[in-house]
Design a protein that fits this description.
Layout: E1 7-15, E2 18-27, E3 32-37, H1 45-56, E4 60-69, E5 77-79, H2 81-100, H3 110-114, E6 120-122, H4 127-179, H5 181-202, H6 208-221, H7 225-243, H8 249-269, H9 273-293
Parallel strand pairs: 3-4
Antiparallel strand pairs: 1-2, 2-4, 5-6
Length: 297
Amino acid sequence: MIYSMTGYASSTGELNGFTWVWDLRSVNARGLDIRLRLPDGLDGVEDTLRKALKQKIARGNVSVTLRVSHPEDDGQYAVNPERLGQAISHLLAISTEAEMRGLTVTPVSATEIAQLRGVIEVRAADADSRAPLIEALKEQIPTLIEAFMSSRQEEGQALSEIMAGQVDQVETLVEQAEALLDDRSQAQADALRNALARVMDATEGADPDRVAQELALIAVKTDVREELDRLRAHVAVARSHLSAGDPAGRKLDFLMQEFNREANTLCSKAQFNELTRVGLDLKHVIDQMREQVQNVE
């Protein structure tokens, strides 16, 4: 099953006057990057969420936002002296070190300090009143992630169908190239005979057998059957990856490089207009397929 790296899910809840909204989304990335924005005071929720995400997701830039509100929260804000002291100490240390290195640091305003995480906190609800909320949030995490994975799976299925069609196109083009080989061989033979005749007419004392041997070597070097065989093998591997249950994005990305290498070699060896056209069509389809692969987990 192919999963897309792009997905989205949201969920809401309500308990004991608390209301909350989850927002979970992801976009393409080379690896797995999880970014969480959760309110303070929800001990254990972040660890549970991060662990659950890592168990389900292999690649993608994943961001999760949780917004929690309570009617009694309005205006019930207070300064956390410990966090404030730590913030000021760190800022002073940075300023001192910068001055020692000859750098000028822009003064930090009180508003900027207040925006640092943990300096200003909501104290409307004590730890006891938050405990049921924390448990409810933890219990909702699996459902949220399942909805998120369903979104990625749905888009992944669409990607799989598109790429399967593109793999079929590659296979058809390989068959077209093979059908051209006999005509190409005849054209090459005619060209080699003409070349041999020109060489013999223009050169006195040339060994006909040696000249014919050199021209035959040129024909061998331009043979494209190996490239077509490898392209056919790549088609089989691509289909295997598309039907596999494991994340296949990196494997498919590498396979696209191999597809492109063989198509480039085919074009460079073609020396036959119709075969060159097929090679260019191959490169076009492979390029389209590579774009789709960038979305695969």
